[in-house]
Write a structure and sequence with these properties.
Elements lengths: L1 H19 L21 E2 L4 E2 L2 E2 L5 E5 L12 H4 L7 E2 L11 E2 L11 E5 L2 E2 L19 E7 L4 H4 L5 E7 L9 E9 L3 E12 L2 E12 L8 E13 L4 E15 L6 H6 L10 E3 L2 E13 L2 E18 L21 E22 L2 E23 L21 E20 L3 E19 L7 E21 L4 E12 L14 E2 L6 E14 L3 E21 L2 E22 H4 L8 E18 L2 H4 L17 E10 L4
Parallel strand pairs: 7-10, 25-28
Antiparallel strand pairs: 1-4, 2-3, 4-9, 5-6, 7-8, 9-10, 11-12, 12-13, 13-14, 14-15, 15-16, 15-17, 16-18, 17-18, 18-19, 19-20, 20-21, 21-22, 22-23, 23-24, 24-26, 26-27, 27-28, 28-29, 29-30
Amino acid sequence: MKRTLFLILLVLSFCTQAQDSTHRTIHLHHIDIKSKLIENDISRLKEVEGTMIYSSKKNEVINVGALNADLSTNNSRQIFSKVAGVMIWENDGSGIQNGIATRGLSPNRSWEFNVRQNGYDISSEAFGYPEAYYSPPAEALEKIEVVRGAGALQYGCQFGGLLNYVTKTKLSDKPFAFESTQTIGSYGLFNTYNAIGGQYKGFSYYGFLHHRNADGWRENSAYSTNTGYLSVNMDLTKKLSLGMQYTHMEYLSQQAGGLTDSLFWEDPQQSLRSRNWFNTPWNLLAINSKYSFNENTKLDFKVFALAAERNSVGFTKAITTADTINTTLGTYNPRQVDRDWYNNIGAELRFAHTYNFLSQKSTISAGGRLYKGSTSRKQQGIGTKGEDFDLSIDQLNNGKEWGKELEFTTDNLAFFAENLFKIGKRISITPGIRFELLNSVTSGRINTSQTGKIEGIQPQRNILLAGIGGEYKINDQINLYSNITQGYRPVTYSQLTPSATTDIIDSNLKDSKGYNADFGIRGKIKNILNFDISVFRLQYDNRIGTVTRDGINHIENIGASTSKGLESFAEINLTEIIKPLKKIGSIKLYSNYSFTDARYTKWNNPSIAQDPLKSIEGNFVENAPRTIFRSGVTYDYNGF
């Protein structure tokens, strides 16, 4: 500090001397003043960021670069360790697919979240099949944004809210920089991440190549994944910028198959399937333009597209049926081939304007979305008798190449608006609405007979969502927040498809609807304590289930569930409390605890309504642990 003051006084004295004489010029040496900001690995979004409003919404930002975590394998337990209430489902050991959920929702490939990369969709199909088969390599990420259910107004369907992966945009302010990470580990793990990036005047770029492979913990669970990414951004003028991003990912994994309980207890690492494979080529393209009319008015426009596949080949009989040489054929039995093709395109326009209202700066954010999703599903193809990954069809099924062929299309048009009203210096209120038009069309057949043909057009759905949130600033660092927001989950493709020709799907099948509500307190106390403690309630109505009548399955809206509980996080910096500890480094303790009571409150199935042993009402919701507790300590000394 003394040295800095001395330099400032020295500069001022030189400037004064220069002003005293018009004939004397003094050239000062160039001085670079650099500082390193030690960033918290968990933080929160600002009230307004770009064209988006986050005031009163429960949210977390994971600053990936500051994490003390294993990024080489996308270790979800470490990456999301400080996000309270996150249920993590590691359905494979590869880290390729992140499966997370909150508040009693299903973590299956994060499909209860609106999953995005840099603000655009990356899941298979946002409405009918929202499973995220692609997750970007954590080494390439700058941050991960998690906005709970209150994000439904700005981002649309799914009760979980927003899960947005934000990639790096450059590696340095210099024209060129390079970074590389090589990792080896148990079970044949090899991971390599190599990236370039930089900036020159108004142009910046970032690109990476990533590869990871391993043999897997279980037998027959080897995998290999490759991802390439390129992002370029250019400031065309002081007000207008243009960017383009392209992602290609493809992985191949061997599917070890299930085990009976007795086999699992005998040896959980064993596998009875060696010919089962899974593959997902994934392509994403996005073009983004930002325009600032002035410091108070901004426009953001995105166009994005996805072209991807989901492919599997394997012996799919029950695990109790051995996959051995067929003595009659003298070879293995033929395998089943299932394939999906996803082709989606969309555009989003967002606008934000800050204006004076009651002597305070308020902000309105509004926008629209146009989207078309197309899925082609072909299943039950009779494949080869080989062992390697091979999607070839070896023989016809009753004269057909595929036993099941289906086409799904979704058209969506949406508009939203939210307004952050500041009332005085401490209070803010944010009401908002979202209106969606949704069309879904299903066609094809589910077997090779004439009765297997299906065709259905769901009536156009007009969906109106509303919400309101509020904040009270106790001081500049701490605030109380509350929010209640309606949400919905569209009928999925699997729910529109009968599993047998005798199944009956209700022609009046409705999208699931409900709401998320939050109330909490969050903030910081100097550099000592970072915390967020809140209670929540999630209402999930119009759940879809199966009712059996006269031996025929009917797919209908028959249920509802309610989740309520507590989500809490706190991190304390011990070295700020016990000053002498600074001599040996920085020590932080963190803990997050959540309690979730998720129960079915309604299940209208007449066949079990009178049987107390089969009644579902009052039962806990699956995949909803009542308590989740995580705690840890971080020690830092001179960069170690």
